[in-house]
Amino acid sequence: MDTSITEYFYSDSGLLISEHYCDLGNDFCNDNIYEFNQNGQPSAVIVYSAKGDSISRIEYDYNTDGLEIERRIYSAFVIGGNLLYTYQFEYNSNREITSRRYFTADGKVKSYNVFEYQNGLYIKSIVDPIKGKKIIEEISYVFDEVGNWVSKTSRVNGKITGFVTREIIYKKN
Questions:
Q1: Residue 172: in which H helix or E strand, if any?
Q2: Is 24 helix (H, G, I), strand (E, B) or coil?
Q3: Which residue, 28, 36, 30, is CA-closest to 59?
Q4: Are 136 and 142 within 8 A, CB to CB?
């Protein structure tokens, strides 16, 4: 059984400033350090290995409604920090992601997703690679009383491919 632990660290104002992730089954850990724009949204995340080496950098752009419209992923700075790939997002009037396009570093569309919702909950993604067959991924969630998911079941083309549970510990100030 794969086990991972993620610790989240917040500023006094409530902004997520870092995450410490450990995959105990593979003896792998890394740290994500967040940078924010003037609106308090993440503008970048720098990923560091357990040894402190930069693994990658992720940059975010938002529209005037504050919705993420683009995410760019770069390689480790020690090897040049080159653009690896880009995601672009579109939304419906309910502010739900309706599509995501995945571009290679040279700007070619590699694949795109179309998302479906039911009663405001994400339930399905249709992945249509430019080359290859269409994949229908369905995800169902169980939420706790605060609204965070505590279990997730994934299916691809009807077959269960994953089940994840997580424990969230809420601290009172």
A1: none
A2: coil
A3: 36
A4: no
Integer Cα distance of 8 and 19 in angstroms: 5
Lowest mean pLDDT among 13-17, 27-31, 118-122: 118-122
Q: Could you tell me which CATH number the domain at 1-81 has?
A: 2.40.128.720
DSSP state, 113? Answer: E
State mean pLDDT over 69-96.
88
- 29 vs 122: which has the higher pLDDT: 29
pTM for the model stands at 0.73
Element (H, E) at 94: none
CA–CA distance, 166 with 170 (Å, rounded to integer) = 13
* Contacts of range 141-149, beta carbons closer than 8 Å, 24 or more positions apart: 144/168, 146/170
For the cut 80, the answer to whether the pLDDT of residue 125 exceeds it is no
CA-nearest of 69, 88, 13, 78 to 46 is 78
Pairing of β 149-156 and β 159-165: antiparallel
Question: What secondary structure letter does DSSP report for 169?
Answer: -
